[in-house]
Write a structure and sequence with these properties.
single chain; 82% helix; elongated; TPR-like_helical_dom_sf; Tol-pal system protein YbgF
């Protein structure tokens, strides 16, 4: 009788341990799954934050350029009006304010051929997620205007388009062109930072760390330097 009771207790404990072990394994798997999900969300959020930062910087730069152009055009218009008035006075004609003339077809064609209009079209495609169109538009811009204030930006956004598509090798090639062709451009810190991320995404950690440290050393006051520090902290 006692042996039977011991056997029953043994079997009970055995099955209980098996049940507890299965529950433990199940909970462990659930925790691992949730941990991976959180890591993926953190990575996605970080990438979106980085892209938003670059978009804001680019928009701020373009707004500053636009304001400068507006001031320049205002000054030119005022100067032209003053010249016309002086000419009219010399000819003894009645001075009147020039009427606004609607743009003709030629003017529209000139606007289309304007380098900034071409850049803006490609940039708009990028912000709308039309990445292939954006890449082609920025390439067209660089073919026609390889040496303007926006050329380094155009080259950078080609790399960013490939980066968004998660084509790391192509993105790396295009970002490297920013450093090679526009070493003094305003997009160099961002390009070096993204080169580092490309290497990390390709599991080449040493090169990735090398470029992140370059950003911190060469551009310590840039927003990308702060991002590089944060990313390096996650790799330790």
């Amino acid at each position: 009788m006692i042996k039977d009771i011991k056997l029953i207790l043994f079997l009970f404990l055995l099955f209980s341990n098996c049940s507890i072990k299965r529950q433990w394994e199940k909970q462990t798997n659930q925790i691992d799954f949730l941990t991976k999900q959180v890591a993926q969300l953190d990575s996605l959020q970080r990438q979106q934050g980085e892209l938003l930062l670059e978009l804001k910087a680019d928009l701020s730069y373009r707004l500053e350029r636009t304001n400068e152009k507006i001031d320049y055009l205002d000054a030119k218009i005022e100067d032209s009006e003053a010249r016309l008035i002086r000419i009219a006075q010399k000819l003894g004609l009645r001075t009147t304010q020039p009427e606004t003339v609607p743009a003709d077809t030629t003017m529209l064609q000139q606007a289309t051929a304007d380098p900034e209009a071409l850049y803006n079209t490609a940039y708009l495609d990028f912000t709308r997620g039309n990445l292939d169109l954006a890449i082609q538009g920025f390439r067209d811009y660089l073919k026609l205007y390889p040496d303007t204030d926006l050329s380094d930006n155009a080259q950078y956004w080609i790399g960013e388009s490939y980066f968004t598509k998660q084509e790391w090798q192509m993105a790396l090639i295009e970002f490297e062109k920013v450093e090679k062709n526009y070493p003094k451009g305003n997009k160099l810190p961002a390009a070096l930072y993204k080169i580092g991320l490309c290497y990390l995404n390709m599991q080449i950690r040493n090169k990735g760390k090398e470029y992140l440290n370059r950003v911190i050393k060469e551009f310590p006051n840039s927003p990308e330097a702060d991002l590089a520090k944060e990313r390096l902290a996650t790799l330790r």
